[in-house]
Every structure is written in C-alpha cells, then in structure tokens.
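Problem: given the chain below (90 residues), write out its structure.
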Amino acid sequence: MLKNNLGYPRMGANRELKKACEQYWSGAIGREQLLLVAKSIRQLNWKLQQEAGIDLHLIKPVDPVKLQDLLERFSRFVVPPTEGAGPLPS
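Solution.
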C-alpha cells in the first residue's frame, strides 16, 4: 500500500517551535538553541512518518512537474469502475 503525506505540522506536538520562537524573541534563548529545537522537531517528524510507513513526501507549494509525475505513477493503480458496478464504497 502506498502512503502519502501532503503536510505535517512543523510546530511540534506541543507547539515547541512556537514556544522556542517566543523565547528567542524575548532574548531568553539564542539563535543556536532556536535552530536546535527546530532541527529536533524536524528529525522527530521524519522518524514518526517513516515508522508510520509514509513513503512519499510533497512539500507545499507542490511543484507542478512533481505533482504530474505523482499522478502518472499512481494512475496505474486506479481501476476505472465498470458500467453498472454501482456506487463506490464510502
């Protein structure tokens, strides 16, 4: 089964990046600490998605050429309904 993720929250599960930005703006932490928080969130997000079996990532805004390639790749998995087959299951 192919799995795709069109977007994933970048703030962290508990809005860690937002809190780190606010600390940076107030002078409580430095630039290096802010970048470290962002990097650790990014690494954790990639790890969680990999463990969930996500095997395709598109970054918004999606490049039209990549999107067209994606649609062409997945079109071979789509079986058009036959006449009189009834409605698709929901």
